[in-house]
Automatic annotation (TrEMBL):
Protein known as: F5/8 type C domain-containing protein
The keyword Transferase is assigned to this record: no
Organism: Branchiostoma floridae
Quaternary structure, from the entry: Homotrimer.
UniProt xrefs under InterPro entries: BG_Antigen-Binding_Lectin, FA58C, FTP1, Galactose-bd-like_sf
Assigned keywords, A-Z: Calcium, Disulfide bond, Lectin, Metal-binding
Keyword Metal-binding: yes
UniProt cross-references to SUPFAM superfamilies, sorted A to Z: Galactose-binding domain-like
Entry's Gene Ontology molecular function annotations: fucose binding; metal ion binding
Biological process per Gene Ontology, one example term: regulation of cellular defense response
Superkingdom of origin organism: Eukaryota
SMART domains on file: FTP
Purpose of the protein: Acts as a defensive agent. Recognizes blood group fucosylated oligosaccharides including A, B, H and Lewis B-type antigens. Does not recognize Lewis A antigen and has low affinity for monovalent haptens.
UniProt domain F5/8 type C: residue ranges: 1-137
Length: 137
């Protein structure tokens, strides 16, 4: 997991307990009460990203979704990979993705992509991004 404990950022912070680094702390607990999920304010195009330090080859990205409430807020979502700190400016890994209702995690193949930043973006307005862990291999 090349994202583990790397610097992370997000478009907004719901409260001080929801810092972006929680999504790369190695804790895959998907309950809000576990204290390891990130959460943005309600906004247009909320995003979260991790800085891998330098451009890296990315094979797969695994996202752990919050399960104790509001699991559907993440749908649809996009994964972006590239060298810009602007998540939306980076290339998309596939199209928009939809998290299955019966899964706590979802793995997306991004083979052939390369970049310093891996981001999750929710397209549209009135969106809230909450996720509990992101792994990059």
């Amino acid at each position: 997991n090349i994202a583990l404990r790397r610097p992370a950022a997000q478009s907004s912070i719901y409260n001080s307990a929801n810092q972006p680094g929680l999504a790369v702390d190695g804790n895959t607990d998907t309950a809000w009460t576990g204290g390891s999920c990130v959460h943005t304010a309600q906004e247009t195009g909320p995003w979260w990203s991790v800085d891998l330090g330098f451009p890296r080859n990315v094979g797969i990205v695994t996202v752990y979704n919050r399960q104790d409430c509001c699991w559907d807020r993440i749908n649809p979502f996009r994964i972006h990979i590239g060298n810009s700190t602007d998540v939306a400016a980076n290339a998309r890994c596939g199209d928009s993705h939809t998290f299955p209702t019966d899964r706590v995690d979802m793995t997306v193949s991004c083979f052939g992509m390369r970049g310093q930043y891996v981001g999750i973006l929710l397209p549209g307005s009135g969106r809230i991004l909450q996720l509990c862990e992101v792994e990059v291999y």
